[in-house]
Design goal:
single chain; Rossmann fold; 2 domains; four-stranded parallel sheet; globular; binds zinc ion
Length: about 300
Amino acid sequence: MPNRRHLLAGIAAAMTLPLLPMSASGQEKLPVVASFSVLGDFVREVGGERVAVTTLVGPNGDAHVYSPTPADAKSMAAARLIVVNGLKFEGWMTRLIKSSGAKATIATATTGIAPLELKDDDHGKGGHGHDHGGRDPHAWQSVPNAKIYVANIRDALSAADPAGKASYEANAAAYLARLDAVDAEIKAAVARIPADRRKAITSHDAFGYFVKAYGIQFIAPQGVSTEAEASAKDVGRIIRQMKAEKIPAVFLENVTNPRLIEQIARETGAKIGGQLFSDALSDANGPAGTYIQMMKHNISQIEKALGAGPA
Ligand code: ZN
């Protein structure tokens, strides 16, 4: 029997070792940081049992205007892989990488997508005139783009943890097939909406890729970032456009203040078609706890609001 003193010394020594997350099979898990909730979900789907994911901007969080915490810096420093959206979505990331001393590989999930270039008009929206790189960052709102994200994450995980390559490939293949099914579902739902009703208002310009992939037109008083408020002029323009084009519905977003959309609904008599999840998932118990749930929830809200003709 080991004496008590040795036992305690052993425990103390064990406790000074870094606490690595372990899988059920007793393997050390690969520590991965994802910048926001959609990426966290993709990493979990592809990584499965082999990875321990930390998501920085959590459920319903706004990654455009996030302030990293000391805990985030710790997660960054411990990570072996950091997954970011890129296209200047996470403006705070460069500084966080530097200040945290992170040594991990950085994988940009949007690598290889065809970015939507913004018109000058989009830049000016909200009156901020910030340079967002001239490209729309919300690429995950099209399922074909999400499939590119997933392939990039699969390759990044395989490079960071070559022993898991077969597992990442199998998980990714299964998940990509589920994404194909969601893509087909969205297309079928859009086809059921009368062509002249395929248009709606949201608060910020987060659905450009959705518009391009699925043919529902979204107009927003606020630009592609939530950083700046919409101006009275932008709101007036939207209200005139809604009346002229008989746009049937406005949608709230989970990451923006509902006030502006409520005002537009009041002034135009348009109905509020519910809440869309744009830049973040809901918490696990909400209607959009995963990317697939988010896309299904959004299209069901859109079909409900736009599908039926005028009452
Ligand atoms: Zn956004």
